[in-house]
Every structure is written in C-alpha cells, then in structure tokens.
Design goal:
alpha+beta, TIM Barrel, Immunoglobulin-like, 4-stranded antiparallel sheet, 7 helices, 19 strands, globular, glycosidase, Beta-mannosidase_Ig, beta-mannosidase activity, Beta-mannosidase_GH2, GH
C-alpha cells in the first residue's frame, strides 16, 4: 500500500482524478493560483502600474517562487479553460486571470479530495490500472491554508483574508453539515469510454437521516436554456447497513448513454450538465457536473455572461456564520439570461473593503433571482448603490466577452 505521500503536479488536466495517486494518506498536495485583486492591490504602492497587474510583469515574476515558474500555474489552467479575453483594464484583466487560476485550483482540490474519500473503505486490487493494492484512504492535507504575503501560491485564503474559490468549493463544501451527507460525481475513463460515477458520502455520526426516506434524482440540463432537462434516474436510496460509515456507489453510466438520453451531441458533451439531488421531507442536497471541460464548449448563448445585479441592506437573522463579526450585511441578487457556471463575485479592490460572501463560485441553473448575503468586515461605509456599481461578476461565459 502507498502510505504517506506528498504530491504536486504542474502539467496536464488536474480535474482528471486519474492523475492522482490512490494513497492511504496524502499528507501534502497543492496547486497554485493567484491571490484576490484586493490581496494583490494591498501589496502595491497606491493602485500600482499596469505592469504590476500583468502576469508577465516584473513584480509577478519576482513573487513567483515555484521552481517551474508561471507555467506550472497557467499551463494546467489553460488545459481545461481558454484564456480570458483582454478587456483593456489592468485590474479587471487580473481579476479574470485570478478567476481562471482559482477555478482550476478549486476543481483540482475537489477532484483529489473526492477521489480519496470515495476510497475510504475500498481497496483497489492489482488490475493493470493500479499496479499494487491501493485505497483504504484515511484523508488528505493540502498545502497551504493561508498566505503571509501576496503572490501566486498554493493557499486557499490569501494575505488579505479573502477566500479563494477553492475554499468555497473544496474546503468548505466537503465539511459535512447536512443530514444527507454529500454527493460526489466524477467522469472516469478516456475518449469514447468515459463514464460518470456517482457516489454517496454518508453523514457523520448522529446527523444521519432515516435511510428509508432518502430519494435520488438525476437530471440533465444544457448551457443553452433554463428548461428542465430529461430525467436520467429517480429512485429510493437504500444505504448498505453493513458499512454505514462508508461511501456507497449509487450509479454509473456511460457519457454516450447520458448524451443520448438528454439529447446532447456526444461530441459536444461539455454543453451538457448533470444535476444529482438527494432529498427527503426535511432537506435537500445537490451536486452539478459538467460532462466536459469548459474549453470544449462549442459556443455560449449570446446573452450569457451578462448578469443583472441589485443589492439591498439585509436583516439576516444570524443563521449564517461569516469568519468575522460584520459591520454591515447586504443581500446581493443576480439575474441571469441563461445558465451560468461558477459565478464568482468580488468588489472592485480599489474600494478597500474586506468582505465575505455566504456562497461564491456557484451555478445559476434556474430562471429567476439568485440571492447571496455579503458580509462587510472593515472598510468605508457601504450603500447598496455602491455595491451595484462596483461588483465584479465573472462566470465561465463572461471570460469570452
């Protein structure tokens, strides 16, 4: 068995779980990303020069301490996504590149963590894929939690205390707070032999719901429309009571079959989205999987990537727990014209506002408003109008505009 492993990789598709070793314990792994625009701005004199905000600038090169340089961060990112279109503003351009590198890091961390967690109770015997018995994974530690200076690093919290996308999508999302546990979806295999595997990660301890009341629903959607897609599967989840704390495989199906069921062209499967839901009478959890890489999307709808933003003062009751005592709370509401993937919000860093979103890096797959609480820690007094004018909203679709 492979025991305590350190693993770093700076090339290839890091969203493919096949690149990661199946270990008993991975005590160190990491992927680089850029800090938030706010974190980077606070390391500059004033607002900096255009060269200070350039990925090829002298300052960025000076602060990049990885032995493989910027290529080790940008190469894997551009393996799965196209480079963002230059919009002429150095700070907005930097923000879009930060989005690309942080999204790549987030999905890489999520893929690695989920891969090991799925094999918590499973030993993979030699079969030509894994040369020796591997599995029975006990956990993983990523390097690193937080930065002490602004630079391209492996952290999920930057030097300004801003959460990167990986902290929202990987670290925070894997903390099980639901009585239904979690759903994990992964695309396995290569070329035409790709399959989607769906696993259930049971909740910890007393959080478990009655197993007889849990239902699984799997449906497909496309990036073209908010219309409800065809259902792939719906049924009752019956956990294996002999291994109540172990992940359980729920479903496995070839992508070609999903594409046929959903009416998607297998050659453009990236345009299709699989949505899996677990629910009972009390609660619901869901997971979303794009059937291909963003780079493989043939074309976005013409109005994709442009969202309507409104803000208002929020009277939240305190059920949300920001990582600080907020001075102000706002409710930000977004409206999209078509489905949007990995919606990322941030304030113009020149406002010098420390804040935290109740969720970020989320998907908008249904028509209608999507509201998120925004907590302000420190900074000048804010108004809803200021937030509406200064909010940057970046999505996969907006990178091409």
């Amino acid at each position: 068995l492979i025991g305590d492993v350190h693993f770093y990789r700076y090339e290839g598709d890091l969203w493919n779980e096949g690149v990661y070793p199946l270990t008993r314990f991975t005590s160190e792994f990491g992927v680089q990303s850029l800090p938030s625009p706010l974190g980077w701005l606070r390391s500059l004199e004033g607002s900096g020069s255009p060269d200070d905000w350039s990925l090829n600038g002298r300052l960025m090169q000076h602060r990049q301490h990885s032995p493989v340089g910027m290529a080790g961060m940008l190469g894997p990112s551009l393996q799965v996504m196209d480079a963002p279109v230059d919009v002429g503003d150095p700070i907005k351009n930097y923000s879009r590149w930060a989005y690309v590198t942080q999204l790549n890091q987030a999905l890489a961390y999520k893929t690695h963590i989920n891969f090991l967690e799925r094999h918590k109770c499973f030993l993979q015997t030699p079969n030509g894929v894994f040369p020796v018995g591997q599995g029975l994974s006990m956990g993983a530690l990523y390097w690193q939690l937080n930065d002490i200076w602004a630079a391209p690093t492996w952290s999920t919290i930057d030097a300004a205390g801003q959460w990167k996308m990986a902290h929202y999508l990987a670290a925070n999302a894997t903390f099980q707070v639901s009585s239904l546990g979690r759903i994990v979806m992964a695309v396995k295999g290569i070329t035409t032999l790709k399959v989607v595997q769906i696993d259930w990660i049971p909740p910890i301890g007393k959080r478990r719901s009655s197993p007889s009341s849990i239902y699984l629903d799997i449906a497909c959607k496309t990036i073209r429309s908010f219309e409800v897609g065809k259902r792939v599967l719906r049924g009752l989840l019956r956990p294996d009571q002999r291994s109540s704390n172990c992940p359980q495989r729920l479903f496995e199906i070839e992508i070609s079959t999903i594409a046929s069921t959903c009416g998607c062209d297998p050659a453009s499967a990236a345009n299709c989205i699989l949505v899996a839901r677990l629910y009972n009478a009390e609660t619901e959890i869901s997971e979303v999987l794009q059937l291909g890489r963003p780079k493989e999307i043939s074309a976005w709808p013409s109005k994709a990537g442009v969202l309507e933003v409104s803000a208002e003062v929020s009277n939240t009751s305190g059920y949300l727990r920001p990582p600080f005592i907020p001075s102000q709370v706002f409710r930000i509401t977004l409206r999209a014209n078509s489905p949007e993937l990995f919606v990322w919000m941030l304030l113009d860093p020149r406002l010098q506002v420390d804040g935290w979103f109740a969720e970020n890096g989320f998907h908008i797959l249904e028509d209608g408003p999507h509201s998120v609480e925004f907590f302000v820690k420190v900074g000048p007094p804010m108004t809803p109008e200021t937030i509406e004018k200064s909010l940057f909203v970046i999505t996969l679709a907006s990178l091409a505009k």
